[in-house]
Amino acid sequence: MLFIYGGLFFALFIRIFSIQATGEVNGQQLEARAAALYEREAVLTAERGKILDRNGNIIAEDTLSYRLIAVVNPKATENPEDPRHVEDPQKTAEVLAKYIQMDEADIYKQLTKKIQGENGELKQPYQVEFGTAGRSISHEIKTAIEKEKLPGIVFTSDTKRYYPNGPFASHLIGFALKEQQEDNTFQTIGKMGLELFYNDELTGKNGSMQYKSDVFGYLLPNSEKMVQPAQNGSDIQLTVDKTVQNFLEESMTEVYDEYNPESMVAIVANPKTGEILAMTQRPTFDPENRIGLEDWMNAATQKIMEPGSTMKTFTLAAAIETGHWHPNVKYPSGSYTLLDRTIRDHNYVGWGKITYLEGFQRSSNTAMANILEEMGNDTFIDYLKKFGFGEVTGIDLPGEVTGKLKTDWPIDYVTTTYGQGSTVTPIQLIQAMTAIANDGQMMQPYVIDKIIDSEGNIVKESKPVVKGNPVTKETAQQVRDVLASTVTSEAGTAKRFAIEGYEVAGKTGTAYIANSDGSGQYLTGHQNDYLYSFLGMAPANDPQLIMYVSVKQPKLEGLETGSEPVSKVFTSVMENSLKYLNIDPTDVADVELKPIENYVGQDVTKVANNLTNAGLKPILVGEGGKIVDQYPKGNMQLTIGSHVFLKTEGKITIPDFNNWSLRNLLVYKTLSGLEIEIVGEGYVESQSVSANTVVNNSSPIVVKLKTPEETFIPPKETETEETVFVQD
Predict the structure, then answer these.
(1) Is 157 a catalytic residue?
(2) pLDDT given at position 44
(3) Which residues of 110-136 are buried (b: 16+ CB within 10 A; e: fewer)?
């Protein structure tokens, strides 16, 4: 026995000595086995970048949501009276099917599935998940499921893409969804619009955390953590203005509900820079749940149409520029014949012999045909190309199409003068109109203001781009004058587009719609079967905004005309936007201007007194002393009554915000650094902290603004009946 036990002890000693010397067992490193047993790695999820409007308001961002998990292994339950696992898979599946987008049978299959163990045998997993259906659970759904008191059903924090504004420039912004990757992780992927086009910039890079834990997952004492931080995606700041976009969305929805058209498109832009301030279409959808999503194309850039008489704007510009515009010369209206083809005016018989100016005001097709005859086909097409038709604008959006200038037959040139045959996109019309509004300088449209990485660095910043100068300043001014007369003249077709206090310039359009059967024929026979539109700007003498609106096949009744639904969108959005942007009406345009300079480093008391004496309103941000910053910056002229913000050091005294615009409030918030919560839009109605109160940086301040409906009352519709404009 002594010999046997001695031999066993010696063999054990040799084995232990061998393990200590080599660190291996059966060819496997013990250190690696221990590391595999105790080391853990957790993924630190990166946030997807935000999409913001021009003022920093959230359009799309990641927000807190929940992931649904079912614990199915009975070992999780220590006390049978308090089960911690799914006891009844059938009942659990039946209840969960009410709350998540997954069939009851599929839920049951997931709850009862087996997995293969190390030895090849099938065993029950500890927990299961439910793929995409079990992710991005809202707080409301989570609460409802918890009230069902289902054993084994737990939640863990997650993120989801959140669109707080509902249907808001939806075809521009697009949407993103979480998708399962090959490594079984989930990642938010852009599926449409800017979310898709800038997916790489918006997508962050996940980090990781490595640590040691016991078999229950608890962190071991004195163990070191190795953290690789997540790198969040870049934020994209747009040129879109949330307030202007909301004006447009509300008006478009009202008209869409009232007239039930086939489709609608609208764009608002700054002609000085090419910045798109608002863009939308109908039908639209809610990116939060994709309800209403049928058409995935952005109609402003990815769809072509025959523009109708809005194209006469650029025919007129070419004629003026080449010396072929004779406004007071008379021509015979009614019909014009070229070879075997005859075109007619929209009232078919015309108005007798009238001047070309009256012909343009009445939207006469034959006036354009006679102008073309004098100007020449090649010259006309050359100018349309200078205005950017027939090629992409280069806007920073995906899938832009070009349209086509149709020149196959002699009659094609004629019909193109009044917007039939040739095709364009709405964004091309906007770009071309910037040349008319901007004294001949045509600006490239764009929607991305800047892209900012997770460190706050600007990695891309857009600047205005001049695409060309198709006409001179004098020609552009003359075109604006003629366009304004279509609104003010008794013979004008655009009388409905007048706005009280502002002079509007623009051109109506009514275009045939090609039959969808591919026959090459047009829909005819009813006033509902046309594309009605308006391309306009205001104020006419120095346009600050341009806008395009089209309504396809509205359901008109009785004596209603196609300009009615179009004008309801244009007039309300244009008026509200001009007032929101503090753009002076025409009747107060000749105001006295006061110069300001760079006041940084000067004494604020002296500067404030001088500004007050000049009729300006100095706003002090700080305690007093030397000026360290100001807005607007120096060396410019302001109208009397304008605010001038002067920043100094020291404590801040809150001013009276009453009737301040949102823009001035945002300037004050930026200069002061105060935590000001802005509620609503329009003009300030109330503030939570009284004027003349001294505050510090941590003091919360809530400022409420009046809604657009409370602030602005759209002008009443005129009772003038218009002749329906039908192109030929």
Answers:
(1) no
(2) 67
(3) bbeeeeeeeeeeeeeeeebebbebbbb
